[in-house]
């Protein structure tokens, strides 16, 4: 499973990309609005650090304006994936951009039928929002499984990008059902490293080593 970083915080991107674990970045208008940089400058800066797909979302709601915004964004770097909402105009935009060979991430997906439409429009990524479905009492993991089954039935190449991941259990669950990508907020990536028995074990190994006076020479 590929791991994308779900943030527009350049310091977090710099820090976490050093691990070599980050396969891409997703941003959204809410995340980008927290930055003091212009959106274009922000995406430019992220693209100087990250080689994999970087999702940059259009904010227009009609096709003509969406294409104008997408044109500006896709010029920034070759690895920009234009993020469009799962609306009628968003899907028209997806079809147009994917026909031109531009990567498209269709976002705000909450049903398997929506995901089917996005794949038919040539989306590179479909972003089902797991946590936001859980928030309203619908199992977000079931949605990921349903989309994977449907894509498998018809050989769609659209990658299932599990979004709105809220805790490490979601990461385990989407990995078990076979999501292609999970986009994770920095805090969750950091939580994945942690286990109290790792810390406890390391502490006792190092204390025994120190007592022995041995050195690696
Ligand atoms: C992904 O592309 C979305 O920007 C993000 O995962 C939404 O997460 P949230 O529901 O925690 O805001």
Textual characterization of the structure:
This protein has about 220 residues and is an alpha/beta fold. The chain has one domain: TIM Barrel, CATH 3.20.20. Helices cover about 50% and strands about 15% of the residues. The chain is built from 11 helices and 8 strands. The chain has an 8-stranded parallel beta barrel with strand order 1-2-3-4-5-6-7-8, surrounded by 7 helices. It is globular. The protein starts with a strand and ends in a 5-residue tail after the last helix. The mean pLDDT is about 95. Bound molecules: erythose-4-phosphate.
What topology does this entry show?
Layout (H helix, E strand, L loop, with lengths): L1 E5 L3 H8 L6 E3 L2 H4 L6 H11 L4 E4 L5 H12 L5 E6 L2 H12 L3 E7 L2 H9 L4 E4 L1 H6 L4 H15 L4 E4 L5 H10 L3 E4 L1 H8 L2 H17 L5
Helix pairs in contact: 1-3, 4-5, 6-8, 8-9
This protein binds erythose-4-phosphate.
The site of erythose-4-phosphate has 11 residues, from α7.
CATH homologous superfamily grouping: Aldolase class I
Domain count, please report it: 1
Fill in the CATH topology.
TIM Barrel
The percent of residues in helical segments reads 40-55%
The count of helical stretches stands at: 11
Question: Residue-averaged pLDDT, rounded?
Answer: 97
Instruction: Please report the distance between the alpha carbons of the first and last residues.
Output: 39 Å
């Amino acid at each position: 499973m590929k791991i994308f970083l779900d943030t527009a915080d350049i310091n977090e991107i710099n820090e976490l990309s050093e691990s070599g674990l980050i396969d891409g970045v997703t941003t959204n208008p809410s995340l980008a609005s927290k930055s003091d940089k212009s959106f274009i400058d922000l995406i430019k800066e992220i693209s100087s650090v990250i080689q994999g797909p970087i999702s940059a979302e259009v904010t227009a709601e009609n096709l003509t304006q969406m294409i104008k915004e997408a044109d500006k964004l896709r010029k920034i770097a070759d690895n920009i994936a234009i993020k469009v909402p799962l609306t009628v105009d968003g899907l028209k935009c997806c079809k147009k951009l994917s026909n031109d060979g531009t990567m498209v991430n269709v976002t705000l997906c909450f049903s398997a039928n929506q995901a089917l439409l996005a794949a038919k429009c040539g989306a590179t990524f479909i972003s089902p929002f797991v946590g936001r479905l859980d928030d309203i009492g619908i199992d977000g993991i079931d949605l990921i499984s349903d989309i994977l089954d449907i894509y498998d039935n018809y050989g769609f190449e659209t990658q299932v990008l599990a979004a709105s991941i809220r805790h490490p259990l979601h990461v385990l669950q989407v990995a078990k059902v076979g999501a292609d990508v999970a986009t994770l907020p920095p805090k969750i990536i950091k939580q994945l490293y942690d286990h109290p028995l790792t810390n406890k074990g390391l502490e006792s190994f190092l204390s025994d080593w120190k007592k022995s006076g041995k050195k690696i020479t």
